[in-house]
Design a protein that fits this description.
Radius of gyration: 23 Å
Largest sheet: 5 strands, mixed
Shape: globular
Low-confidence stretches: none
Strand order of the largest sheet: 4-8-7-6-5
Distance between the termini: 58 Å
Structural class: alpha+beta
Mean pLDDT: 94
Helix content: 25-40%
Number of strands: 13
Oligomer: single chain
């Protein structure tokens, strides 16, 4: 491709001239120019190979041939909207329904997930966004993250699930006292932007009771963590127990392995309530024959390559390697995760658990120089987040952690050297 033959400097100059600065780059001080990818690897214009630890969109692997072929073959036959009768949309809905609890049996297809920042209504319910803008609206109520490492109820609490659920009950009661009603409770099944949080088991069930009593519905966001990423289950909300069933589940990103497709699954009562409004749901590209062919291909690959079980084995191995780093390096305060959804919490001090924000940014930059793509998340931007393509291997885990270990060791030696120099002075 002609664009690939440009120098990195020319590409950057064109981007700076033609693309809004609000469209940010990874590693802005020295961006990576990626020209191709395959599996869990990405390649720059010089042919250098990077291990991708963060691209959960390429769920079954970058450019997976089965998914690419499905899109191409269907595009050669027909691509149109869902107002025409077609097998792909019903076949895909049926396959998705087989992965979900029985009550979640009605599907709405979209062309992409409605990401934070693209709709004002979503900015309004996203603390991650509105706290940096106009602040919290009076109709929005924020419950504490069920974070047992940094939150008010930690790992030593006898029942953090109940304690955090009671916080939701308190928020509901406070809203009702002001004359407000509760419409819905929105939660990522595993809060990612919040810092790779693993809610205590049983928390969602008790929250759902409080929300249902107040007349609301429970919305589980599986956009980052669904489709077998957690290994033990196909959906992350299932970690909360077999008796918990959300009223609505949202899916995106991994659902199409990079193809723009998303989905909302819900129950018959919720669907009937929406239908009773008389409003038609239509999305020009949602549920197209091509999108559904891609979605079916992703499910086929997950099953044929046993990637859910793979996430369990590789994720457990990676977690163990990272826990060894926690023993070795004081900056590693916590290692948490399930399957191939893992967070490493970097701290300045064990007693205060102060986020090591600058250190995390430096570490990610150094890893990039060592051909590992990783990023940070959490309110303090100090959580190393691992959400690689599901084909990420045991050998990849060894390589990444070895490089992480070397950089942390180098950081500690530099700090020690500076401290020794100050003492000598």
């Amino acid at each position: 491709m002609a664009a690939d033959r440009r120098s990195k400097a020319d590409t950057l100059a064109l981007r700076q001239r033609l693309i809004s600065s609000s469209c940010r780059l990874f590693f802005p001080e020295d961006p990576v120019k990626i020209v191709r990818a395959q599996g869990q690897y990405m390649y720059d214009e010089q042919g250098a190979e990077y291990i991708d630890c963060i691209n959960n969109v390429a769920h079954v692997g970058h450019c997976h041939p089965v998914v690419v072929r499905a899109a191409h073959e269907q595009n050669q036959v027909l691509n149109t909207n869902s107002r025409y009768l077609h097998d792909n949309i019903v076949d895909y809905a049926q396959r998705l329904s087989e992965t979900l609890p029985e009550p979640l049996c009605v599907f709405y297809f979209l062309n992409s997930g409605a990401y934070h920042g693209h709709l004002s209504s979503l900015i309004d319910i996203s603390p991650y966004k509105f706290r940096n803008l106009d602040g919290q609206k009076e109709w929005v109520h924020v419950a504490p993250l069920p974070d047992t490492y940094r939150g008010p109820y930690r790992e030593d609490h006898p029942n953090p699930a109940v304690a955090y659920a009671n916080e939701v009950k308190r928020v509901v009661s406070s809203a009702q006292e002001k004359g407000r009603k509760i419409a819905a409770f929105f939660a990522e099944s595993l809060p990612s932007v919040g810092g790779q949080i693993i809610p205590p088991a049983g928390y969602f069930s008790q929250v759902a009771e409080h929300i249902h009593e107040a007349g609301g519905v429970f919305v589980a966001d599986e956009i980052q963590v669904g489709f077998g990423r957690v290994g033990k289950h196909f959906w992350a909300f299932q970690l909360q127990g077999k008796d918990f069933v959300p009223d609505i589940v949202t899916m995106g990103k991994s659902i199409g392995n990079g193809h723009p497709v998303a989905c909302v699954a819900t129950t018959q009562p919720v669907a009937r309530a929406f239908e009773a409004t008389g409003v038609e749901y239509f999305n020009t590209f949602g549920g197209s024959p091509v999108s559904c062919a891609v979605g079916l291909a992703v499910l086929n690959v997950l099953e044929k390559e046993q990637l859910q079980a793979h996430a369990t084995s590789v994720g457990s191995f990676l977690m163990e390697l990272l826990r060894q780093q926690k023993i070795k390096h004081p900056i590693v305060g916590d290692v948490r995760g399930v399957g191939l959804f893992i967070g490493v919490d970097l701290i300045k001090d064990e007693a205060t658990r102060t986020p090591a924000t600058e250190e995390a940014a430096y570490l990610v930059s150094r890893l990039k120089e060592n051909y590992v793509l990783l990023s940070t998340d959490g309110p303090g931007r100090n959580i190393l987040k691992f959400k690689p393509p599901m084909c990420f291997s045991l050998d990849n885990a060894r390589q990444v952690v070895a490089k992480l270990d070397a950089i942390l060791t180098d950081m500690e030696e530099k700090v020690q050297s500076c401290q020794t120099l100050r003492l000598q002075l």
